[in-house]
Specification:
2 copies of one chain form a homodimer. Chain A contains 12 helices and 18 strands. Chain A is α+β, with helices and mostly antiparallel strands. Chain A has 2 domains: 287 residues, 3-Layer(aba) Sandwich (Aminopeptidase), CATH 3.40.630; 114 residues, 2-Layer Sandwich (Alpha-Beta Plaits), CATH 3.30.70. In chain A, helix 3 packs across helix 12, helix 8 packs antiparallel against helix 9 and helix 10 crosses helix 12. The N and C termini of chain A lie close together (10 Å).
């Protein structure tokens, strides 16, 4: 059945968003709430009160994720929904937090309307998805759940001020030696609602998307070296100019992704020139390539095209080319049965959706290690995120929560 | 006549180069000799002894240029040769210093062989051509001679450590209030021998070039602004990516100069990206354009083509475009009669030459304000300069000095 009659009160949702967003408030609409900070402690305490008030059993796990549990009458593996409570420095009120509130509102409404489910439902507030305090530790909370956190990480990971994550954990009452206890092997499905963080829904005029894949992503650092020389005295035809090579390569890579069409993306976000002087042909240009595609074959083709273009340009221009892969994340496919379930729920509710790949990374891609997953995207104003200006309307948010609640109902009741 | 029999002793020239290069020696072949430093004082003191030993009347002018004068029997305006004694930090033994030594060796040999000239010959050691101590004061010595230094400059120009140039002058016994006294209005011709600093002579297999023009040069700083967004969540077709615009513009500008052919050059030497993060579509890319051409019409065409391309790309890609001209130096033409004289002298001496424009700036372009000028270039190994590795062979240097001496003979005897 579609829980079309399930009452999701928009003004109530808005109140929750504002109340949670007040913890770590930064300027007008900003939120600055990093993991294991006083604001993080306060936010999870508020969520714990809300969870308890709605009849959920609350516990904090060994890494600091907060769980609210509604046990099912038939036991078995859990159906989980949630997202991360940490923000950028500063971020806004929606990135992460909205997924926790959506899960809470949905499970609370389901319990009030339908009572105890057959299968166990859980709401989760994950920690340090962003890596905004510990830059090498993004997906810290979800990685602990899937067992991908290594025991030694607690002693090697440090924040921007040099504080070890083990010490930050102790400060909030967590024992870093017990981080392994956060592992779960009893989650059947993870459904995460999140803001889109892009302009696709807005451009399409739709409130909600069903995410069928999380893109694969490769970050490469490339250094092109030439021969540093006098900008006036060296004729163009005798130069080995790494800036000329970089410009041709950057144009070519960006054009390649553009011509391949959505959802291929390639971004040159960082570029450093040496010696970086106006009247000197550079010695070297170092840059990063962020290239993403959720389809394995097309991704391989995108990367191969990029690599071949760089080799060809460097060779033709007599430039040295060194490149190293900083990281390479495989794409993750949503579970087809969950995608179908979400599409079906939206259809029954007459909520128009599109199906898309996520170009951003999410906790869901970690949860994919141990559970089926799918995601719901809610339209972002101007496609913005990671900024106090990020915004989604209450109408769109309620539409997303209704799809989520309907899917959880189908799975758990 | 060609002074083909004039003896220029290569080993003697080499000894002078090494002895002057030892003052401020930096590593193996480097020289670090900035204006008004102890090394600068010591270098000019050595030159003064050499000038006096060769029978020249020595004086230091109000800005610190050192002059060695061989009075002519008929008076009138002087025929001057020389270059700058200051170096990069570090530079090598040849850039600047070679032009002083060449003038000294030529005038000394002419006096020894032919006695007093009809017209006055002068050798000059100019100061702070490079701007290597006072970055805003390049051509400081030659500008004082032509009267282009403003009185207030002595109080506003500061070095990398914040020392005012007035105080640096006082430290070496110069009165900054008297800088106006360095002005000369009695120079008929200035002939400067300099290393090429480029690869054109080496590529042509020739020792010496006659310089018919000093290129015109424009430095422009350009800022392209787009919309900063998530590198994963924003499709290529909805981006306003200033890096894509920059890459297309840089490629186009460099290709334009390349296609126009020698001596057009365009260099993108400096580029700064904000926020410069791997996974973020940049907000802005700021870069400099160094574009040069010695021909007024072609230079206008080069700049117009550059400007039109930038406007077109920025408009098509929806990017903000701000550009400001940092400086714009007009080209300077050598005096045709001096170019003809130098070519004729080289021909009589059977020294093969080519005629070219200088792509670098030189004191000669300042002296052009008050005198006819021409330059002689000596082949640079690998086209290098502004580095301890710069090198020219004694054979090539002697060839250049012979052309210089012959031209000075024709002008002054």
């Amino acid at each position: 059945m579609a829980v079309s009659a399930l009452d999701i009160d928009g003004s109530q949702v808005e109140r929750l968003i504002l109340e949670l967003g007040a913890i770590g408030a930064h300027g007008g609409t900003g939120v600055w709430r990093t993991v294991y900070s006083p604001e993080w402690v306060e936010a999870n305490a508020l969520l714990a009160r809300w969870f308890e008030g709605a009849g959920l059993a609350v516990r904090q796990d060994a890494v600091g994720n907060l769980w609210g549990r509604l046990p099912g009458s038939e036991g078995g593996k859990s159906i989980v929904s949630g997202s991360h409570v940490d923000t950028q420095r500063p971020g806004g009120r929606y990135d992460g937090a909205l997924g926790i509130l959506a899960a809470f509102v949905a499970v609370k409404a389901l319990r009030e309307r339908f009572g105890q489910p057959k299968r166990t439902l859980e709401v989760v507030s994950l920690c340090e998805e962003e890596g905004s305090r510990f830059p090498t530790a993004n997906f810290w909370g979800s990685s602990a759940i899937t067992g991908r956190t290594r025991a030694q990480d607690v002693d090697t990971v440090v924040d921007f001020d040099g504080v070890r994550i083990a010490d930050a954990m102790r400060q909030v009452g967590l024992d870093p030696g017990r981080i392994g206890e956060a592992v779960r092997d009893d989650i059947a499905a993870f459904i995460e609602l999140h803001i889109e963080q892009g302009p696709i829904l807005e451009a399409a005029g739709l409130p909600v998307a069903i995410v069928e894949a999380i893109t694969g992503m490769r970050h490469t650092e490339v250094c092109l070296t030439g021969v540093q020389n006098h900008a006036g005295a060296f004729p163009m035809d005798l130069r080995n100019d790494p800036m000329a090579g970089f410009a041709e390569i950057a144009s070519g890579l960006i054009d390649t992704a553009h011509r391949m069409g959505r959802p291929a993306v390639t971004t040159i976000g960082r570029c450093t020139v040496a010696p970086n002087a106006g009247a000197v042909i550079p010695q070297s240009v170092t840059f990063t390539i962020d290239a993403r595609h959720p389809d394995l074959d097309k991704r391989r083709h995108l990367y191969a095209t990029h690599d071949a273009l760089m080799r060809e340009v460097a060779q033709r221009r007599g430039l040295g080319l060194e490149s190293r892969v900083l990281f390479n994340h495989e794409p993750r496919l949503s579970a087809p049965h969950l995608v179908a379930l979400l599409k079906g729920a939206a259809g029954e509710l007459d909520i128009p959706t599109l199906t898309m790949a996520s170009g951003a990374g999410h906790d869901s891609q970690q949860m994919a290690e141990i559970a089926d997953f799918a995601m719901i995207f809610v339209r972002s104003k101007d496609g913005r995120s990671h900024t106090p200006e990020e915004f989604s309307s209450i109408e769109d948010i309620v539409a997303g929560i209704r799809v989520l609640a309907s899917a959880l109902h189908k799975l758990a009741y």
